[in-house]
TrEMBL record:
Record-stated family: Belongs to the UPF0316 family.
Record bears the keyword Transferase: no
Domain of life: Bacteria
Taxonomic source organism: Enterococcus canintestini
Residues in DUF5698 domain copies: 21-78
Domain DUF2179: 114-166
Cellular component GO terms held in the UniProt record: plasma membrane
HAMAP family recorded: UPF0316 (MF_01515)
Protein name from the UniProt record: UPF0316 protein AKL21_01470
Length: 180
């Protein structure tokens, strides 16, 4: 058994799929220059790895190692993207009461630098406060913890916005970019 060959097959497919996962995430986030550049490297690596396996199909372990590199590459690619945390999330927090005395979460969030849009709503069990909060994805977990620490009964939904324009947030981001 040629362990050097098996390692090369694994490493090449691992690199290919890790780059594939990252390129897909970059494409979805709108990185129009870096995503195609990553894809050039990705496809070159792919052809190398696939040709190594196809030239040696007589040994099924080669195919297994290729598939293992694929699986591990996806896992690592996802972890890398989670660490990079590209983009923004929009969080909707629905709180159980609409009285300002009962709920000071909007002020706490604003004091922590978040832009918050607050509105009233009617739920099954009465009045609700709806908070719309935009945050960098890298701050997502801290935002959830902050919300839950102030209002443990909050119902939280998040999604990734594709386009952001105007408002408190874009002014804040522009100021931050000008300082850099």
């Amino acid at each position: 058994m040629d362990f050097k060959l098996l390692f090369m097959i694994f490493a090449i497919n691992f690199a290919y799929i890790t780059l594939n996962t990252l390129r897909f995430m970059l494409t979805m986030k709108g990185y129009r220059i870096i995503a195609p550049l990553v894809s050039m490297v990705e496809i070159t690596i792919y052809i190398l790895g696939l040709s190594m396996v196809l030239d040696r199909l007589d040994d099924p372990i080669n195919l297994f190692v290729y598939a293992l590199g694929y699986a591990v590459g996806i896992s690592v690619g996802i972890k890398i993207e989670d660490k990079l945390a590209l983009g923004y999330i929009m969080v909707t927090a629905i709180l159980p009461s609409n009285t300002n005395e009962d709920n000071h979460l909007p002020k706490v969030l604003r004091d922590n630098g978040y832009g918050v849009t607050q509105s009233s709503a009617q739920g099954l069990e009465g009045e609700r406060v709806v908070l719309e909060i935009l945050s960098p994805r890298k701050n997502e977990r801290q935002l959830y913890q902050l919300i839950k620490s102030v209002e443990e009964r909050a119902f939280i939904i998040s999604y990734e916005p594709k386009y952001i324009s105007g408002g408190f947030w874009t002014k804040k981001v522009r100021k931050r970019q000008q300082r850099q």
